[in-house]
Amino acid sequence: MTQDYLAFLGLFAPRAAATDVTVWHKHNPLLPVRLTDGAKLNPSGQIWRRFHLGEWEYKQDPETLDDYEARQF
């Protein structure tokens, strides 16, 4: 019972500040996003995002020749 009481009080203790997740990971957005370099979105090319300094950043892989040819058919 004492452990339950101490765990309950731990809910009100100060929490550590959230750390930035700076690892890029794949993302499939439903709506258009703004890329960090200001470029327009390509119809193909994987979009990546990371949470950095309190906001999401997006980048896109450049379209390769194989991607372009596959999109033509």
Summarize the structure.
By secondary structure, the chain is an alpha+beta fold. The protein has helices spanning 2-10, 65-72; strands spanning 21-27, 47-52, 55-60.
Question: Taking Cα atoms only, what radius of gyration do you get, to the nearest Å?
Answer: 21 Å
Strand content: 25-35%
Question: What is the typical, i.e. mean, pLDDT?
Answer: 77
Put simply, the count of helices is: 2
Strand arrangement in the largest pleated sheet: 1-2-3
Unreliable sequence segments = none
Total number of beta strands:
3
Structural class: alpha+beta
N/C terminus separation: 67 Å
Q: Roughly what percent helix?
A: 10-25%
The largest pleated sheet is described as: 3 strands, antiparallel
Given the C-alpha coordinates, what overall shape results? elongated
What order do the SSEs take from the amino end to the carboxyl end, as H and E? HEEEH
